[in-house]
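WARN retry 2 of 3 for item q-0093 after timeout on previous attempt; input resubmitted unchanged.
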Amino acid sequence: MKDLSEIEKAIFEIDSEESFNEMALEIFRFQSVNCAPYAKYIQFLGLDLNEVKRVDQIPYLPIELFKTHRIYASERAPLLEFTSSGTTGSVTSSHFVAKPDLYERSFTLGFESFYGPIQEFRILALLPSYLERTGSSLVYMADQMIKMSHDPECGFFLNDFSKLSSLLKQDDKPTLLIGVSFALLDLVEQESFKLKNTIVMETGGMKGRKKEITREELHQKLKAGFGVNQIHSEYGMTELLSQAYSKGGGKFETPAWMRLLTRDVNDPLSPSKAGHTGGLNVIDLANIYSCSFIATSDLGRINPDGSAEILGRFDFSETRGCNLMVAAP
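OK item q-0093 returned
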């Protein structure tokens, strides 16, 4: 097995399916021994580690275990703990992070692979529900991006819609407005815009503040309110150190070290048929020191071009920040 420092470097240098598969197997071998809950899950499945020679043989850890177990694969004490949002009284997930710089490299290189250098953007973050609690990985990411930008007008906007509207109306340089869905809707209900240099990116989530609607309905309202042709989306979660992005139409693509796949809803250990709705599995190789292979509670579909659509959540799942109603069969 490669040295861990070599793996940390190599995951962000993946440039082919072959190198992705090689690195995924390396990380699987490490986590199957060093992440105790994952090792126990593999044992429960009766899987012989020596038989895992392909990526499609790697089992996915149910994401619910992040609520009840310490999913961690490092001897060093974690430097960060990210926690999920949740409804009152619900059990939240914890993601223990051994090396914050891995997270920072992942979200920086991931964003820049789709949009270019962060320092060239004015970053405007409209994340009220996340700012009102501690332990949000999204707030951590936005805060670091704000610090990386060279624009002095960057910042978080909790309730100051007046200042945010003023900055948006300037529309004088490349700008990223990243916001939780209900807050973006609140903004365009108060004022309308005609933006030309601004990317509007929703992170999902009504957080109980508004009625849940489909992503298509959400985007139609936001496109009309901001005067843009497309609404961009970010797909991430507490349990991941990487994000997928959509530049419109709800079709998500991943950075080179991340994959979105689907599993059969009736047989969770088997992949779903191409083009069919299934449970969403994620491979995030940046999760070296937790678990890189996660079976989420989301429903998705993989398109012929390799992009993924996030269609909703399983009925038995608790409401979380990225909750959207199922929009397709």
